[in-house]
């Protein structure tokens, strides 16, 4: 059986940021994690993809967003084109205009914390 897949948009190498805590939380729960950040490089030992389109998986199980709404708005068409079973807008990424545009594109946004959905808390992933 294959592992579930997740792309983390707004992944960060800064362990105090939610974009990093999400990477670690999903890894901890057995996901194949694909961090996405225009800077590229590595986060938590994983290859970082500059764009979602470059993630080498089609129809991801989950896309989880940790970006400001104005940035997310510009990525919604790319997210819809990539495809995902679950589209998570975490706190701070969940502006009404983002939700509305996502729905227009056929995405069904889940407006909640994807880390909490895993049965854990962001506080469980200290910055050290």
UniProtKB/TrEMBL annotation:
Pfam hit, one? CoA_binding_2
**What residue stretches are annotated with the CoA-binding domain?**
1-93
**InterPro entries membership:** CoA-bd, NAD(P)-bd_dom_sf
Name the domain of life.
Bacteria
From the Swiss-Prot or TrEMBL record, give the protein name: CoA-binding domain-containing protein
Phylogenetic placement of the source organism? Bacteria, Pseudomonadati, Planctomycetota, Planctomycetia, Pirellulales
């Amino acid at each position: 059986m294959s592992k579930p897949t997740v792309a983390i948009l707004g992944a960060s190498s800064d362990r105090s940021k939610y974009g990093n805590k999400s990477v670690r939380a999903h890894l901890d729960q057995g996901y194949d994690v694909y961090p996405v950040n225009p800077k590229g490089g590595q986060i938590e030992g994983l290859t970082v993809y500059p764009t979602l389109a470059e993630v080498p998986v089609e129809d991801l199980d989950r896309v989880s967003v940790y970006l400001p709404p104005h940035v997310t708005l510009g990525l919604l068409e790319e997210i819809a084109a990539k495809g995902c079973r679950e589209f998570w807008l975490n706190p701070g990424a969940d502006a009404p205009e983002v939700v509305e545009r996502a729905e227009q594109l056929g995405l069904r946004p889940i407006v909640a914390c994807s880390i909490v959905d895993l049965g854990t808390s962001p506080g469980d992933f200290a910055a050290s």
